[in-house]
Amino acid sequence: MADLSVTYLGLDLAHPFMAGAGPRGHTVGGVRELEDGGASAIVLHSLYEEQLTHESLATHESMEHIAHSHGEAMSYLPEPEGFVLGPEEYLEHLRRCVEAVDVPVIASLNGHEAGPWLETAAPMEEAGASAIELNLFEIVTDPAVTSAQVEQKKIDIVRGIREKTSLPVAVKLSPFYSSLPNFVARVLDAGATGVVLFNRFYEPDINTEELEIVPHLALSSNAILYHRLRWLSILSGRIGCPLAISGGVHDEHDAIKAIMAGAHAVQMVSASLLRGPGVYGAVRDAVSDWMDEHEYESLVPMRGSMNIERGPDPRVLTRSQYLRTFATWSPHQHA
Ligand SMILES: Cc1cc2nc3c(=O)[nH]c(=O)nc-3n(C[C@H](O)[C@H](O)[C@H](O)COP(=O)(O)O)c2cc1C
Question: What is the CATH number of domain 6-309?
């Protein structure tokens, strides 16, 4: 049987298929279900900068909305009052989750500007987290703010975290940067251990009848996989660091592509909400069967085999095939 073991952020994992930050992490029972379902590691939901600075928690509303917009598929979601809110509660919850499962538990911090909230990294380490995932989500609306200023703020956060903890730190990035490889190189230089590609935004919708902007969060499909495959392929070829994919992995085919593009770890959230927490074990077994059929003994020769350095035609990843791809489109492809 193929060896699926992998090292991600210095953590030895039985296989790459892990639970990304999501609602199942809100309860110890949910975390146990993720482990029982086969997840090789579990990223808890985020503790937000706003929670630490006592500002309002807009995400809450989004969670409430999604719970009501997905009917039965989402009926497992805890009611908003069941969510873990304050930092003390989060740390206590983290402690209890670490005790409850054998797989590594990764804490998640979510913020956009360096500040006292970064102090929480040290107690997260004391509470038994195996690593910290840092989500740097921000929407800039001020035309006077440059991308260089925004990036510098993120680098300062990473440096700040690095000063507070010796835990491995994975930075969960937003999908759009003018020069992602340069930013990733700087994030690593500032002390990050690896990166997660990518965060998926809550994108509000417009209600044209009520004239309201409404929170909107649909679960993903693998339509968002391809953007991640491209950047995994480029970063795994150009920058050697631990890489995780987050977004659009729903089955073994998506997972195999992510690994061939260069992912060490494969996070899934929507798939587990749609198919149940057993999805991690199911994908693990299906990937293992596929590897046996294709005579791969371990993930090592597979990982990055289709990246920008090792793949058969790196041009498809960059601008050079852009014109050709559009020029060769035919309506019959969609007939
Ligand atoms: C209901 C829900 C809650 C989420 N909560 C968090 C969170 O607390 N922190 C975070 O970094 N990402 C959070 N995410 C984003 C996921 O970790 C993941 O990046 C995103 O769903 C894309 O992966 P997927 O296609 O496997 O769902 C959440 C996603 C969903 C659907």
Answer: 3.20.20.70
